[in-house]
Design goal:
single chain, seven-stranded mixed β-sheet, 189 residues
Length: 189
């Protein structure tokens, strides 16, 4: 784990990001997409997030990209502007090596620095012993809800688990007028 570095993703990473996500869509239950998006669509998603100032990170070791994570808008309504939803995907050959933990630690810090107040994890197939649930619990996320049988993939019904982590005082403090979400809101209005 010590040789793994975390950095901001660039457009040059998109082929590998697309490959990692395609595997997660085809073989996993974290994403409820049924067909992997192509490189163009992944580029559009990346561009939308990075243009909006949202953190998008990759983990690499010896020049090989092992995983990626990003935070994006939780919901489009402006009152949700202080809340982001996290996503983290690790290449199959890198699972169990701490890549997801390093990515999430860096993502939480990036979201904190930007001034967001809550990170929401929307975990597909969120059974109690899933790697994603355990990872989020380890990072201090609390369970916030469960939607039973909300997805159908790979021939079975899947539950969606919501987990939440407050940042920067969460709901206890007023919004910071200098935070990224507040600056973006003022710029758009």
């Amino acid at each position: 784990m010590s040789n793994i570095s975390i950095r901001a993703a660039t457009a040059a990473d998109l082929d590998r990001i697309t490959e990692i996500y395609a595997d997660a869509v085809r073989n996993g239950t974290a994403s409820y997409e049924l067909e992997p998006p192509d490189r163009v669509e992944m580029g559009n998603r990346f561009g939308s997030l990075t243009t909006g100032g949202f953190p998008y990170l990759v983990a690499e070791k010896d020049g090989v990209l092992l995983g990626y994570a990003y935070a994006g808008p939780f919901r489009p309504r402006p009152a949700y502007r202080f809340v982001v939803e996290d996503s983290v995907y690790v290449a199959p050959e890198a699972k169990g090596q701490g890549v997801g933990l390093l990515l999430m630690q860096a993502l939480i810090e990036a979201a904190r620095v930007a001034g967001f107040r809550q990170i929401i994890a929307v975990i597909g197939d969120g059974h109690a012993d899933s790697a994603s649930v355990r990872l989020h619990e380890k990072l201090g996320f609390c369970h916030a809800g469960r939607l039973e049988g909300s997805g159908y993939k790979h021939g079975r019904w899947l539950d969606t688990v919501f987990m939440q982590l407050p940042l920067n005082g969460g709901k206890e403090l007023p919004p910071d007028p200098d935070s990224l979400p507040e600056r973006r809101f003022r710029k758009g209005n």
